[in-house]
Design brief:
The chain is of the alpha+beta class. It has 2 domains: 106 residues, Beta Barrel (Thrombin, subunit H), CATH 2.40.10.220; 31 residues. The chain contains 3 helices and 7 strands. Strands 2-3-4-7-6-5 form a 6-stranded antiparallel beta barrel. β5 and β6 form a beta hairpin.
């Protein structure tokens, strides 16, 4: 079932600026195809690198392959921003395609979140100041108490004195 992507009112949808080259194909209603590359994508649309601008308002099928699988959706081409960059908006997108697109966007925004959380925790722990050293008096008292305990235990062993309990 094709559904329109959700529009989020005044808040912009998260965008994924793609580091990898993602080939895309625009398929026009008359059957023509135009190869392109996906530069930026959101759940509402994105930006394509095209060999030549496409007429604003053109209704096309946009196909591209992601790590989460292929995405096929209906798109409307918007006004070109340069001779090679042109934005688009999704007008229809199946739920499975929305899910795959959401996975790609989420992965680019927060790559391997559990790993990043672990790294952040480790960094926070290593940034903590070491505990202040114990005072000299406390160290000496602990040393004396240990020495006395060791002496008493040795004396009881050598003189065969039974333990008090």
């Amino acid at each position: 079932m094709n559904v329109s992507p959700p529009l989020l009112g005044t808040q912009r949808a998260p965008r994924a600026r793609l580091n990898d080259i993602i080939p895309a194909v625009l398929r026009f209603q008359d059957g023509r195809r135009l190869p392109s590359q996906l530069q930026v994508v959101s759940c509402n649309g994105g930006l394509l690198s095209v060999p030549r601008p496409v007429a604003q308002g053109s209704q096309v099928k946009l196909m591209f392959l992601t790590g989460a699988g292929s995405v096929l959706g209906g798109a409307e081409m918007l006004s070109p921003v340069s001779s090679t960059l042109q934005p688009f908006r999704f007008v229809s997108l199946a739920q499975d395609d929305q899910r795959r697109l959401g996975a790609v966007i989420q992965a680019s925004i927060a790559p391997n979140n559990s790993e990043q959380l672990w790294i952040d925790k480790l960094r926070a722990a290593s940034a903590l100041q070491p505990k202040p050293p114990r005072s000299r008096l406390l160290k000496r008292a602990m040393g004396v108490a240990g020495f006395i305990t060791l002496g008493l235990a040795s004396a009881m062993y050598f003189f065969h004195v039974p333990w008090p309990w």
